[in-house]
Specification:
Blueprint: H1 6-28, H2 34-51
Helix pairs in contact: 1-2
């Protein structure tokens, strides 16, 4: 388990968010709504918690 600084964590979350946006847009060819982004962020956080990164 490596320590992750808050700044690095924010970069990781932003990167994951931008990646999921592009995948979403390719699949649906529309911009994700705020609800979709929030849902994606919760999924990412849940996955990170499972891995013990938060």
């Amino acid at each position: 388990m490596t320590e992750i600084s808050d700044a690095d964590f924010k970069k990781i979350v932003a990167l994951l968010g931008s990646m999921s946006d592009t995948i979403y847009e390719q699949q649906r060819n529309i911009k994700p709504s705020k609800a979709d982004k929030a849902r994606q962020a919760r999924l990412v956080l849940k996955k990170l918690k499972k891995k013990g990164l938060t």
